[in-house]
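Shipment paperwork, digital attachment
Item: protein structure file
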Amino acid sequence: MSRSSRLILLMDAMRGKRVPVTAAQLAQQLNVSERTIYRDIQTLAELGAPLQGEAGVGYVLRRGAFLPPLMFDADELEALVLGARWVRRQGDAALAQAASNALAKIAAAAPRDLRDTMAETSLWVPPAAAAEDGALADRYVQPVRLAIRHECRVTLAYQDEHGRVTQRTVWPFALAYFDGKRVLAAWCELRSDYRHFRIDRIAGVNGGEPYPKRRYELLNVWRKMYGIEPES
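Attachment content:
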């Protein structure tokens, strides 16, 4: 068993306890020596694990406190790396940088063998086929995403399938990332109804004031309309 795996099991052993558990009990549960438990407790404390207790009394994890990234197992790490690599292919420069930063923070706080696991993950996201207007479409992913976050109206210069441009003031509440295409879900003031807008047909975005409803209200009604289950 690797050391990082043992640390994960040690924290799992303490997480469900409401009273302190002694090193002797932990050693018996994990089939290691008490000396190993004391060393691992010290390592966890140095990594920022929310431990309370002392030798001879026992140890307990504080409830609701931060758990360090070493809690990720191999499958969870692969999911994080794959997800971050996928995000970096989506053309939103700010979100791509955020994905890289998040992985770097996790790697910096994780034990060395988990950092190596992350670096050696062999799950890759191939480059998407670039549309002719892909660079133009990418310009509007970030402003739309920020409008969703801040629950603000935006006015879109929007092209239909024939190239005709209209001005649409919308209340954006969701952005779907399909392969090679991104679609904005919003309440359209012109149509007084929910509408979907392809990002690659947007020719301009102007920000506005906050819209009068909460984003989750718009999202919940839209989900019911289309039978979309909430994300876990």
